[in-house]
Write a structure and sequence with these properties.
By secondary structure, the protein is of the alpha+beta class. The protein has ten helices and 15 strands. The protein is globular and about 60 Å long.
């Protein structure tokens, strides 16, 4: 079996576990580990289980199963290949046909402007009804059952779905980067979820309308934004005031220059939207 086969078929999770390395936090697709080559208090090693790759925010290096073994065993490629040959491939990545079948577990039935009274009320309860044009009303079938919610698209065509009772993503989880339509901006504002983005649009002054916006849709998606964030000379953070948000703030501050943490504006509250809803 050649290098490319091993990179594709040997589970990165299994390789990390073979070195007694386990995630500090994770979701279905991604996870954060502590760095492999140094001690740290905040995990900066981001793993994408679907792509079978990892990214170290501390060094900017990308890893596959072979380079992980090389780093851990301090060995050459041939020795790393021998190490990987002991793994069975039953835990390999989802292949293209399996991805296809997963994508068929849901079906979009209709999409349009927000009109359902329940969704209108939900937007009003979050005090962002004025920004209803930035989201969609989505009716969908999920595993044979019909649902509806407020939809917000990400860069991969996945849809973040929110209503009073649910918080899910249809399709591939990803970031949402919204670029300015008129200029090539060097400023970007980062939010954790799209309700904070809608809240900010309520508060935004006209002189701040020339920026780009990045919605992570999950702090675990930060690694997806690395190439984009390198293009900006000014980064403003409106992330949550919780453990995940604080960890992400530190990672971004350690990786990029000209970072302004704006969470002090809503200190004492979980996020910008919660602060805004209190009428502060």
């Amino acid at each position: 079996m050649n290098c490319e086969d091993l990179k594709r078929k040997v589970s990165i999770r299994a390789v990390l576990e073979s070195f007694k390395l386990f995630p500090v936090k994770e979701n279905t697709r991604t996870a954060f580990y502590f760095a492999l080559d140094r001690e740290e208090k905040i995990p900066s090693f981001s793993v994408d289980f679907l792509k079978n790759k990892a990214y170290d925010f501390g060094t900017g290096k990308t890893y596959d199963v072979i380079s992980i073994v090389q780093l851990m065993n301090r060995c050459c490629i041939s020795d790393a290949l021998k190490y990987l040959e002991k793994f069975n491939f039953s835990s390999k990545l989802i292949d293209k046909s399996e991805k296809c079948s997963l994508s068929k577990t849901y079906r979009i039935l209709s999409e349009g402007e927000i009109q359902h009274p329940g969704l209108i009320q939900y937007l009003k309860s979050r005090k962002v009804y004025e920004q209803k044009g930035l989201v969609k009303e989505i009716f969908y079938d999920l595993k044979g059952k019909k649902y509806f919610g407020i939809g917000f698209y990400n860069n991969s065509g996945g849809i973040e779905i929110r209503n009073k009772y649910s918080k899910i993503c249809l399709g591939t989880k990803d970031i949402t980067l919204i670029k300015n339509k008129f200029i090539e901006s060097k400023e970007v504002i980062i939010f954790e979820g799209f309700f904070d983005y809608l809240t900010y649009k309520n508060l935004e002054r006209q002189d701040h309308s020339n920026v780009d916006y990045l919605i992570l849709n999950s702090t675990a998606m930060l690694f997806k934004a690395d190439d984009d964030l390198k293009q900006y000379s000014s980064i403003s953070l409106f992330l949550d005031n919780d453990d995940n948000g604080n960890t992400t703030k530190r990672l971004i501050k350690g990786r990029y220059s000209y970072v302004d943490d704006c969470s002090l504006v809503y200190g004492g509250f979980k996020d910008l939207n919660e602060w805004f809803c209190t009428g502060q």
